[in-house]
């Protein structure tokens, strides 16, 4: 099947799914229930809600998307690769997850995926217990490396780090799925694996539990817009106001976290810890949230410090060059093709009453 056919099918799926939901809502009367809301599905690139990935659950808990007219369902997936395939297949309108799988697919011409908001620059790291003797990737020959899930959006970074150290990722090390957070911490502490590769939000949870790690990563990664909200050009073209609204919920979640990491942790504990992403004490949750906020603020500052979710064009271009070097794509796409054609999108996503949001966060009615 050629690329035009794939894109036509994606457009047809988007129009059919969203128009059907809209018609169902329009025919339901004038109430204020979910039948009057447009149905939206977000494919989440984690198998469970995670404490520090606030953009996936705060807009649900605070009903920000609902207030804008959207009944949003966030569907966990095994990883960002899987979530991206859900988006390409037309079974979701958005992805919250790692950007690499979607942007690589877009640059290859497999799908018209676009980056709506970047909520974190690349914070992937390979970590080993501090004082355990492993401080460089080349020391992992013949060792076991824990990963949170199979097929994660960060796999390309781990492979590059190992290859640059002279290791074959498939032959010289054994990669073992150990899960997130407390499960990964236990695997490292017990010696079941000698190192662990994951993203900052996950590692922050472990540090909050008392972990002390040596970090290994490539400095160039820190420029890449690695995590955020993605959609397709077809969705942008047909429903630009919906894209703005979903992006606004994501931006609000960043501002809410900044205003009160304590309240964000309380919201997670009240409604989402049972999904499988919990396991910390309340005090540890707050510590993890504050560590995560540091990462988010670094990303905000790298884009000028004004708008949560803004995308640096040079970072996006550098990320494509990296993916090309890793064999993920042949020719980088023009950066403009990877971004929605919505004038002032980042500013529109940040167009909300920040003082009121801060007051809401500090009042903390979870």
Report on the structure:
It comes from Thermocatellispora tengchongensis. With 366 residues, the chain is of the alpha/beta class. It has 2 domains: 3-121 and 224-363, 3-Layer(aba) Sandwich (D-Maltodextrin-Binding Protein, domain 2); 125-222, 3-Layer(aba) Sandwich (D-Maltodextrin-Binding Protein, domain 2). It has helices spanning 3-26, 58-61, 64-67, 80-88, 100-108, 155-164, 181-189, 200-208, 233-238, 240-259, 261-271, 282-302, 313-325, 345-349, 354-363, and strands at residues 38-44, 70-76, 94-98, 113-121, 125-129, 144-147, 174-177, 195-198, 213-216, 225-232. The strands form 2 sheets. It has a 5-stranded mixed beta sheet, with helices on both faces. The protein has a 5-stranded mixed beta sheet with strand order 7-6-8-5-9, with helices on one face. It is globular. The protein starts with a helix and ends with a helix.
What is Rg?
20 Å
Mean pLDDT over the residues: 89
Number of domains: 2
Shape, principal axes of CA atoms:
globular
Number of helices: 15
In the CATH hierarchy, what is the superfamily of the largest domain?
Periplasmic binding protein-like II
The number of distinct β-strands equals 10
Distance between the termini: 49 Å
Give the biggest beta sheet.
5 strands, mixed
Q: In which range does the helix fraction lie?
A: 40-55%
Query: And the CATH topology of the largest domain?
Result: D-Maltodextrin-Binding Protein, domain 2
State the CATH architecture of the largest domain: 3-Layer(aba) Sandwich
Q: Which class do the helix and strand fractions yield? A: alpha/beta
CATH class of the largest domain: Alpha Beta
- State the low-pLDDT regions, or none: 1-32
If strands are numbered along the chain, what order do they take across the biggest sheet? 2-1-3-10-4
Q: Which strand-content bin applies to the residues?
A: 15-25%
Q: What order do the SSEs take from the amino end to the carboxyl end, as H and E?
A: HEHHEHEHEEEHEHEHEEHHHHHHH
């Amino acid at each position: 099947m050629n690329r035009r056919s794939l894109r036509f099918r994606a457009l047809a799926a988007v129009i059919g799914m969203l128009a059907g939901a809209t018609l169902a809502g329009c025919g339901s009367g004038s109430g204020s229930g979910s039948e009057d809301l447009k149905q939206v599905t977000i494919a989440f690139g984690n198998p469970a809600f995670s404490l520090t990935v606030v953009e996936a659950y705060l807009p649900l808990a605070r009903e920000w998307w609902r207030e804008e007219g959207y009944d949003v369902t966030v569907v966990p997936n095994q990883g960002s690769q899987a979530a991206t395939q859900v988006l390409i297949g037309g079974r979701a309108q958005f992805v919250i997850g790692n950007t690499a799988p979607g942007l690589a697919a877009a640059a290859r011409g497999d799908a018209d995926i676009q980056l709506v908001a970047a909520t974190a620059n690349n914070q992937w790291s390979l970590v080993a217990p501090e004082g355990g003797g492993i401080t460089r990737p080349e020391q992992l020959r013949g060792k076991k490396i824990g990963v949170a899930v199979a097929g994660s959006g960060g796999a390309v970074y781990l492979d590059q780090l190992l290859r640059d150290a002279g290791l074959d990722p498939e032959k010289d090390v054994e990669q073992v799925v150990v899960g997130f957070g407390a499960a990964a911490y236990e695997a490292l502490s017990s010696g079941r694996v000698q190192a662990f590769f994951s993203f900052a939000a996950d590692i922050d949870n472990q540090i909050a539990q008392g972990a002390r790690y040596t970090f290994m990563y490539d400095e160039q990664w820190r420029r890449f817009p690695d995590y955020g909200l993605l959609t397709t050009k077809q969705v942008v073209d047909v429903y630009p106001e919906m894209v703005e609204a979903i992006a606004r919920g994501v931006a609000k979640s960043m501002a809410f976290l900044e205003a009160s990491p304590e309240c964000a942790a309380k919201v997670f504990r009240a409604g989402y810890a049972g999904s499988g992403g919990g396991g910390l004490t309340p005090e540890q949750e707050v510590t993890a949230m504050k560590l995560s906020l540091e990462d988010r603020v670094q990303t905000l500052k790298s884009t000028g410090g004004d708008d949560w979710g803004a995308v640096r064009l040079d970072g996006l271009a550098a990320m494509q060059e990296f993916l090309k070097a890793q064999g993920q794509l042949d020719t980088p796409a023009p950066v403009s093709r990877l971004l929605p054609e919505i004038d002032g999108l980042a500013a529109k996503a940040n167009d909300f009453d920040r003082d009121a949001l801060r007051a809401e966060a500090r009042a903390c009615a979870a």
